[in-house]
Amino acid sequence: MSKPRTRIQQRNSEAILDAALEVFSQHGFRGATLDQIAEVAGLSKPNLLYYYPSKEAIHVALLSGLLDTWLDPLREMDPAGEPVEELLAYVRRKLELSRDFPRESRLFANEILQGAPRIQEAIEGDLRTLVQEKAAVLTRWMDEGRIARVHPVHLIFSIWALTQHYADFDVQVHAVLGPAEPDPYPEAHLYLETVFRRLLAV
Amino acid sequence: MSKPRTRIQQRNSEAILDAALEVFSQHGFRGATLDQIAEVAGLSKPNLLYYYPSKEAIHVALLSGLLDTWLDPLREMDPAGEPVEELLAYVRRKLELSRDFPRESRLFANEILQGAPRIQEAIEGDLRTLVQEKAAVLTRWMDEGRIARVHPVHLIFSIWALTQHYADFDVQVHAVLGPAEPDPYPEAHLYLETVFRRLLAV
DNA sequence: CCTGCAATTGACCGTCCGGTCAAATATTCA
DNA sequence: TGAATATTTGACCGGACGGTCAATTGCAGG
CA A10, C1' C29: Å apart? Predict the structure, then answer.
């Protein structure tokens, strides 16, 4: 992307991306407006377009870094490590991502819900490749009898689904648990650890 | 809602709701346009507004019936039944809902992602009540030693997350599995059955 | 056939949207 | 300081949006 030179450029383009993340993640691409983003960022609309040439450019700038960040925890899963602990560490890292970056998770969810028009090639490329690669590792672990045999790709899907649920359906989670339980993550962590320990035990 | 009297009203208001489901589920409320819905429905825009007074009214009409349909499988979970089989039956019914009504699932996901502005009270009311009620049943089963002890509400969350993932993230699922595996549901069913059998085994 | 109501639509309205532009203001640096 | 450059903005544009309305067409029953 564009490299901000001055401090003002640095500060403003960051403020824009942060505001855009806020708005895009809540309303999706078409539902978000430049005026909204400008207001959240504390800038005028023409000033937004001084830093980014179009609404789409802002969206692309947000998405471009996102997929890598999102997949990093999976990349860190070490083929040479202890299988169950590696998988549980992945679950934990992914859950922390949901807790600490829920807007990013919702931005991604919105993009996928809308058919992934802007990151389809990345999904069919990098993401698919990485998943297939890690699925091969999982299969090897199963062949070696170190974890139970299940469909490796669906195993990865289930980690995504379970962890992202707490970010994407945050409103529902809090509504069901009630105001007495303001932070569901400690319980979620315990629960998910149980789920995958029992699933993978040989 | 309004009771359609004539066959024409029946046919058209159904066509409108079907078209609106298509468009809303893909673009969210703000991202959808009446012209788009009208085109999909094969009607003129003023004709849409002859059957429904506003864009919001269409959206509300769609959502009003949805939550009940969505929760029905959970309601059917029989407190007098065999615990593991009841839970697995719930998982299966929920997964079939994802397979057969993916647009409804995405509509719901969109609404929650956007903060559930139009169904928050229903979520904090009916949905919360039902979940708490069924969580009590699960807790009783755990007390009786008929299923393993885990957090009952998170158990329900995990069923939602795992089953809805296949509808909401459909694009990603197919991209990762590739064109060789056009229908992920048989494998998903097997996988989820394994997950919950192992999780709940005493 | 006619009457009366149901259904449909072209034309239109005010507003909002993404984006442009020229002018004004701040900042940098020789 | 002053010239050059970076930043900011009010005013505006064309098109799309949600919604209205008067007028037309379709249709059922007497």
Answer: 21
Number of other CB atoms surrounding residue A21 within 10 Å: 20
Which nucleotides of strand D lie within 7 A of protein CB?
Answer: 6-11, 16-22
Cβ proximity of A90 and A134 under 8 Å: no
**In Å, what is the separation between the CA of B45 and the C1' of C8?**
10
From residue B47, give the alpha-carbon distance in Å to each of A103, B13, B175: 38, 10, 39
Q: In what helix (H) or strand (E) does residue B14 lie, and over which residues does it extend?
A: helix B7-31
Tell which A residues from 45 to 104 touch B, by Cβ distance under 8 Å. none
- Determine the Cα–Cα distance for residues A154 and A120; give it in Å rounded to an integer: 20
CB atoms within 10 A of CB B44: 12
Taking an 8 Å cut-off on Cβ atoms, the answer to whether A151 and B176 are in contact is no
pTM for this entry: 0.95
Task: For each of the domains in chain A, give its residue range(s) and CATH number, in order of start.
Answer: 1-53 (1.10.10.60), 62-200 (1.10.357.10)
**DSSP tally for chain B: helices H, then strands E:** 11, 0
Per residue in A121-170, pLDDT (tens digit) is: 999 999 999 999 999 999 999 999 999 999 999 999 999 999 999 999 99
